[in-house]
Design brief:
Blueprint (H helix, E strand, L loop, with lengths): L1 H39 E5 L14 E5 L13 E5 L7 E9 L3 E5 L2 E4 L2 E2 L15 E5 L4 E5 L9 H4 L2 E2 L3 E10 L5 E2 L2
Subcellular location: Cell membrane; Membrane
Membrane topology: Single-pass type II membrane protein
EC number: 3.4.21.89
């Protein structure tokens, strides 16, 4: 009789240990997921056509939150940021000028510091946008433009982007699968 009761206690102990191990594993996984999402990589959804043909509505991307902890956004980077006029909303645009630069557009040519920029291969064919500027970009600010410049509310509308509003660098598309790849 004694060995049978010990066996039941042993079985209960093993079951309790299994549930305890499972609970610990779930808690650790949840904490790691929160840390990764908050500080390392965050998924974002593209709701508008302002970055076509680089990104299309419905694309899901991963943003690297560490990219600008060690350095600054550079011209050509695709950046996710808090919208300056309503920081509860997030936007995505491309950096075309950085602090200290002067940017303007004349006759459908973008000029940075008075120099015409080479044709931007990420722009849709036939894009025509209106003249603006010149605009002097303040230190620790960026001039942002959508790749679909005819349908983009960007720095031409709301001004330059303060460095403090930058969330991270858009790295790659993970959905839909037929568009899987790096963002350039």
């Amino acid at each position: 009789m004694q060995p049978l009761e010990e066996s039941r206690e042993g079985k209960q102990s093993r079951e309790t240990a299994w549930w305890w191990d499972l609970l610990q594993s779930l808690v650790v996984a949840a904490v790691l997921a929160v840390i990764i999402r908050a500080f390392l990589f965050t998924p974002f959804y593209i709701p508008s056509p302002s970055m076509e043909p680089t990104l299309y509505p419905g694309d899901r991307i991963i943003v690297n939150r560490l990219a600008y902890r060690l350095g600054d956004p550079q011209r050509g980077d695709v950046v996710v940021f808090h919208y300056p006029l309503d920081p509860s909303r997030d936007y995505i645009k491309r950096v075309v000028a950085v602090g200290g630069d002067t940017v303007e557009a004349r006759n459908n040519v973008l000029y940075v510091n008075g120099q015409p920029q080479p044709p931007e291969k990420y722009l849709p064919p036939g894009v025509v946008y209106s003249d603006f500027g010149p605009v002097k970009v303040p230190p620790n600010n960026y001039f942002m433009m959508g790749d679909n410049r005819n349908n983009s509310a960007d720095s031409r509308v709301w001004g330059t982007l303060d460095r403090r509003l930058v969330i991270g660098k858009a790295m790659f598309i993970f959905w839909p699968l037929n568009r899987l790849g790096l963002i350039r």
